[in-house]
């Protein structure tokens, strides 16, 4: 005959704990699914929120290509005219030299143009031929020699005028690609002339492939000296600066000071928005609202699990009594109900993460975006589900463990 | 049965159970009784007489308000809850009127449940042979062919035999049955009682609480309870009665008198 066992408590194997809990959850699959639904929604909302925010942030950042991020334009107010008689213009033609000394400036060019509406007709020869339309209304722009570099243009034929041309006040011109086509000029080496409002200019080159200031493609570009002499093109209206990558914000701050320290207020600076801040702002916008929504869903999910687990405890009072009679300690009972709710939470986390990922990918496919998904997020979701389950199961587990075995057996 | 040679398994000495209420309910008053290994005892009495309270105390599911309870020589009233749980798991088997089978588990799984909680310090039987032992226990109650069934597909008598098989898996020293036939019709009652008789014949110590005369008649000894007092319990005989009283005092101090 067996004698009473030694007195050191009872043990429950880990495999048994998992077995018992899983069996209890899987015994009512529909109930389990509905219980986990709140957690599924919560986790899915969080994954979608964070996933879409990351995707949208990436998308906005990808719009800022290198070209946009390195463009700074300083525009003179009041058409750049001198403040009073005898004073210098707001921005001088030495703007490129002044800005070139700034750290982070790759190239700069000062621009002035004949205001639209007063632009003189441009023609390729002096002959008045009534049978063909040879006169064109094109933009006429005076620009420094740094123009091709500053606008990322390419000289497709001939050359750009140089400092010598400017200093000698040579009447030379460079045509934008489109302007050259309209005027029928393609070989600057033949030294063709264009007549701007009757003033002849020798074409020395054709500028094409403009990446900035694309309006210049249909313009006649002349040196500031000749432009002022012959066409009365006035003071500098704006300065286009090409910065080093990442230096735009700094250059934008320093440029007005370098150009005219006494009148910085009269200059308007157009600079690209700060990349980091743009991305952060977007993510914060999207995140803030939906994170709260997702957390709210999680709380609802937790309450759902707590509620159903509590109902389960009440329905299984007899089972609790039986397990205690079979030797289960209070800790075993609490452990089982905790694991059961953790399993429900895990279920919610895994399904929620899957739903979230599918939604993010679906939105991206529909919008033709590139989905950006953090693997850590997808892995953290089930863990968050387990945490929700454990939190939700704490009270029911405590209630179950507190029951007196004899009363539990009688109550059922 | 030679009672002089028998070793005591259960020793109640002046056990009282008072439930806190206004006025307090004296469910058991100064119960002294002894059950030896291998006995088959029936506890009878009217409803509310204290039978169920007695079973709760015997099964270590409840603690007496006063008195001493030695189980297999071990004083249990001062034991920590987890040690009492170990005794339940290792030495006690329960059969309830309500069966207490888990509806969502198969017959076999219900039986195997008895091995989920094992006393520490004992060599736990290997988990992978648990199924085989459950099948053995089911064979012993004649239900080997029902292993894969859910309890709701069984008759009442079959369900109670599953519960008995579950109790047997823990190899208990004492099988406590609380109205085991209370929910059964005549035929099923007979089958369950036959199973219990067989187990007793194999050497299992049985205590059956019942209000059914036919059930009580199967037992070799009958203890009657009325109004919380034991009437006609055979305690340690005649001359030893006084010695038992003395042992109660000793038990309070020493906790584990030599058995």
Automatic annotation (TrEMBL), chain A:
Keyword Transmembrane attributed: yes
Alphabetized Pfam families for the sequence: FtsX, MacB_PCD
An example Gene Ontology molecular-function term: transmembrane transporter activity
UniProt cross-references to InterPro entries, sorted A to Z: ABC3_permease_C (IPR003838), MacB_PCD (IPR025857), Macrolide_Exporter_MacB (IPR050250)
Signal peptide: none
Compartments where found: Cell membrane
Topology with respect to the bilayer: Multi-pass membrane protein
A single GO cellular-component term on record: plasma membrane
Predominant cellular place of this UniProt entry's protein: membrane
Ranges where the MacB-like periplasmic core domain occurs: 33-242
Superkingdom per UniProt: Bacteria
Boundaries of every ABC3 transporter permease C-terminal domain copy: 292-405
Residues spanning the membrane: 32-54, 289-313, 334-363, 375-398
Sorted UniProt keywords: Cell membrane, Membrane, Transmembrane, Transmembrane helix
Family of the protein in this entry: Belongs to the ABC-4 integral membrane protein family.
Name of the protein: ABC transporter permease
TrEMBL record, chain B:
Top-level taxon in the UniProt lineage: Bacteria
Keyword ATP-binding among record annotations: yes
Segments forming domain ABC transporter: 10-252
Record keywords: ATP-binding, Nucleotide-binding, Transport
Region (Disordered): 236-259
Keyword ATP-binding found: yes
Sequence intervals crossing the membrane: none
A Pfam family of this chain: ABC_tran
Gene Ontology molecular functions: ATP binding; ATP hydrolysis activity; transmembrane transporter activity
Assigned GO CC terms: plasma membrane
InterPro entries assigned to the protein according to its UniProt record, in alphabetical order: AAA+_ATPase, ABC_transporter-like_ATP-bd, ABC_transporter-like_CS, ABC_transpr_LolD-like, MacB-like_ATP-bd, P-loop_NTPase
PANTHER family reported for this sequence: ABC TRANSPORTER ABCH.1, IMPORT ATP-BINDING PROTEIN
Name of the protein in its database record: ABC transporter ATP-binding protein
Source organism of the structure: Yinghuangia soli
């Amino acid at each position: 005959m067996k004698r009473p066992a030694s007195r050191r408590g009872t043990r429950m194997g880990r495999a048994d704990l998992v077995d018992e809990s899983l069996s209890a959850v899987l015994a009512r699959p529909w109930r389990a699914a509905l219980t986990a639904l709140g957690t599924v929604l919560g986790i899915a909302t969080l994954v979608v929120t964070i996933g879409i925010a990351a995707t949208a942030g990436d998308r906005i950042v990808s719009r800022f290509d290198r070209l946009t991020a390195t463009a700074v334009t300083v525009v003179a107010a009041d058409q750049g005219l001198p403040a009073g008689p005898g004073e210098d213009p707001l921005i001088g033609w030495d703007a490129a030299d002044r800005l070139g000394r700034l750290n982070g400036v790759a190239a700069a060019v000062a621009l002035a143009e004949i205001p639209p509406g007063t632009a003189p007709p441009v023609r390729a020869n002096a002959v008045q031929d009534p049978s063909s339309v040879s006169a064109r209304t094109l933009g006429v722009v005076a620009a420094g020699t740094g123009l091709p570099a500053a606008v990322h243009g390419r000289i497709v034929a001939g050359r750009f005028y140089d400092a010598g041309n400017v200093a000698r006040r040579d009447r030379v011109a460079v045509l934008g690609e489109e302007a050259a086509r309209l005027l029928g000029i393609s070989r600057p080496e033949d030294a063709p002339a264009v007549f701007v409002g009757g003033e002849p200019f020798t074409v020395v080159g054709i500028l094409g492939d403009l990446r900035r200031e694309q309006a210049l493609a249909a313009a006649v570009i002349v040196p500031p000296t000749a432009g002022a002499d012959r066409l009365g093109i006035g003071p500098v209206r704006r300065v286009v600066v090409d910065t080093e990558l990442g230096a735009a914000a700094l250059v934008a701050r320093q440029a007005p000071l370098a150009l005219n320290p006494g009148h910085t207020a009269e200059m308007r600076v157009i600079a690209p928005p700060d990349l980091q801040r743009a991305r952060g702002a977007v993510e914060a916008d999207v995140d803030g609202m939906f994170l709260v929504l997702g957390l709210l869903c999680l709380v609802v999910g937790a309450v759902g699990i707590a509620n159903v687990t509590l109902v389960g405890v009440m329905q299984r009072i007899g089972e609790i009594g039986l397990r205690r009679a079979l030797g289960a300690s209070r800790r075993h009972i609490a452990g089982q109900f905790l694991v059961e709710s953790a399993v429900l939470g895990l279920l919610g986390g895994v399904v929620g993460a899957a739903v979230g990922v599918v939604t993010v990918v679906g939105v991206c496919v529909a919008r033709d975006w590139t989905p950006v998904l953090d693997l850590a997020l997808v892995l953290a979701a089930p863990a968050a589900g387990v945490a929700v389950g454990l939190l939700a199961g704490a009270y029911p587990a405590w209630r179950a463990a507190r029951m007196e075995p004899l009363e539990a057996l009688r109550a059922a | 049965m030679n009672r002089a040679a028998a070793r005591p398994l259960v020793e109640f000495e002046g056990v009282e159970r008072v439930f806190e209420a206004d006025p307090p309910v004296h469910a058991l008053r100064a119960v002294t009784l002894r059950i030896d290994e291998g006995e088959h005892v029936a506890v009878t009495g009217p409803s509310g007489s204290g039978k169920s309270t007695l079973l709760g105390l015997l099964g270590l599911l409840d603690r007496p308000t006063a008195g001493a309870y030695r189980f297999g020589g071990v004083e249990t009233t001062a034991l920590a809850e987890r040690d009492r749980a170990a005794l339940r798991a290792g030495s006690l088997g329960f059969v309830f009127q309500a069966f207490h089978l888990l509806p969502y588990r198969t017959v076999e799984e219900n039986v195997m449940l008895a091995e989920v909680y094992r006393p520490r310090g004992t060599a736990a039987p290997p988990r992978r042979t648990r199924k085989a032992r459950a099948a053995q226990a089911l064979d012993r109650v004649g239900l080997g062919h029902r292993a894969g069934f859910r309890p709701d597909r069984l008759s009442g008598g079959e369900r109670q035999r599953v519960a008995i098989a579950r109790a047997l898996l823990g190899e208990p020293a004492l099988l406590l049955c609380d109205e085991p036939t209370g929910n059964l019709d005549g035929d099923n009652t007979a089958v369950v009682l036959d199973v219990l008789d067989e187990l007793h014949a194999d050497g299992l110590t049985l205590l059956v609480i019942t209000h059914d005369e036919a059930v009580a008649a199967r037992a070799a000894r009958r203890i009657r309870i009325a109004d919380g007092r034991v009437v006609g319990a055979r305690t340690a005989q005649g001359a030893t009665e006084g010695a038992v009283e003395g042992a109660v005092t000793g038990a309070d101090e020493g906790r584990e008198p030599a058995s």
